[in-house]
Specification:
Elements: E1 4-14, H1 17-27, E2 30-34, E3 38-42, E4 51-55, E5 60-68, H2 71-78, E6 87-88, E7 96-101, E8 107-112, E9 150-160, H3 163-174, E10 177-184, E11 186-196, E12 204-205, E13 209-213, E14 218-226, H4 229-241, E15 245-253, E16 259-264, E17 270-275, E18 279-280, E19 287-290, E20 297-299, H5 305-308
Parallel strand pairs: 1-4, 5-8, 9-13, 10-19, 14-17
Antiparallel strand pairs: 1-5, 2-3, 3-4, 6-7, 7-8, 9-14, 10-11, 11-13, 12-18, 15-16, 15-20, 16-17
Amino acid sequence: MIRIKDIHHVVYRHPDLDAAEAFFCDFGMSVQCRDNSHVYFRGAGQNYYIYIAEKSDRSEFVSMAFEVEDRQDLERASRLDGASSIQRLERPGGGERVTLQDPSGRQIDLVHGIASTDKRPMRAALVHNTADAKQRLGELQRPGKGPAEILRLGHIALGVKDLKANLDWYKETLGLLPSDMVVEGSKDNAHAVFLRLNRGQSWTDHHTVALFTAPEDHVHHASFEVQDVDAQILGNTWMKERGWSPFWGVGRHLLGSQIFDYWYDPSGNIVEHFTDGDLYNSESSTGFVEGGDDSLYQWGPEMSIEKFLGLSGQ
């Protein structure tokens, strides 16, 4: 089995790279490097980049990449039906990849050997005094206003016409495990599934890939992790003051428990901040939840499943 270490980066095309750079810096990334046709954005973690903006006449999703454990995983991947050979990445940071396509025709790159970089300092997570546990004694909370510093790319959400084919592919090819399934009437009638990495006994995010049934195949959003809820809310305020277009939030999801806020980038794509998500390992059981607005969030601004997924004009 191919061993996936984590999701590594996404690539999107944008007509205006200057606008994309301004947005993603306010969103909480920083520019690793730039040329006439690409901007490479990094987080505070050690990945050389987590988002690539590519110059184009139109806005579109290009690919997503998962980092594998070692080069032997690339060799295994190259032997799969429809896989490319191992290719050198002609990008800053170097490395190699094998390119696959999921059943919806999306480009999936498995990567290895991309350079790592030094971590950048983030504000330490705030310590909270709760009603029955006082942990912060004689210390003040004064986080500053500014972008919600992003640590890493956390997950991607995909609309798919054929849920079963995509679910089977991500389980069988990438070894992902279902954390929660959104069903209607019975466990065999799934409309959405949240898939996590298989890291054995190690704890990993509730989901790295989310799939939901849609009339057309598309990418719904890419999601990026920030330090804590204060960073998220202050970052939300920063984005509004800078004039960017909000989609939804701040709120807390039900499945995965993440606190979230969603934004439209200048090209109309949706991106998310998240923090405080649930962690699972390979022994965690799969949950089955009846679909409906209550399965979408615990609290936050009013939102319907249909509007959130773009299935309705309401």
